[in-house]
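User: Structure tokens for this complex, please. No commentary.
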Amino acid sequence: MFQNKKADERMLSFYWMIIFVLITIAVVAATVMFFSKPLDVRGAESRLLSDRIVSCIAKNGEVVVDIEGLDILGECDINFEDSTYNEVQYYVEVGFEDKKGFVGDENFEVYCGDLDSDEETIPVCHVQKMGLLKDGEMVFVEIKAVVRKVEQNAK
Amino acid sequence: MKNKKANVLTENVVFVIFTILFIAILFAFVARASSGVVRIEEAQAKKIALIIDGAEPGTNIVLNVQDVLKKKRNIDNNKVFSVVGNRILVKLDSNSGYVYSFFNEVDVKFDLFEKPEGWFLSIIINEKEDDENVSE
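Assistant:
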């Protein structure tokens, strides 16, 4: 009877040890996985870029620039140069009726489609559609802003 | 009989101490991982870049950087935050550093100053004048 109790206690300690080891592995693995991932700010960056274009082309809901011949970088005070990368990491498109003006890497436009938005290793796109007044008439303008910067924001 | 009771008590005390120690070590590990210099550099550089992207020329933003400067090693306060062209560089160690770019075509200057409450970083955003601007 006494021997059995002692054996039970030993088994209990053994299970405790296993539980401790499992908890340690789980916490260490979760921490390493979480903190080894870079902070992904591309969603916020693409929204800011999109907002910048909106405030550049419209004031008080009225189009104030010539959208068709718009020099996006010059008119909106935007600089896409980044010596961290060899290639441009942005794409901006302003669509108006059937015409569109764009700047940046045109290959990024496909990421504004129906791709799985949970996929982190692809560029992040933000699309804004709005109705604006142009010469007293309502026109619909679509703005697409894409940020790549995969190496600094996703692994 | 008394000896047996004393043994059980000692075992329990050792077990409780061991458990508390184990939990404390886990907490310390998570806290250390979350406050690593590399992580802070990245977070600060990206935060400042986004602030600049969302700001209009003529804006002056002041950040409390007391907790950030506490983590620096072997580097002067004035060299922790710098802007090179349209890139933000945050260095908390002479051997490390993180760079992140902003797209807003503006002239950015940093001013680090100390107040009784701690260290503050003033981000002064003006309209672009020169193509190349380097400040610390």
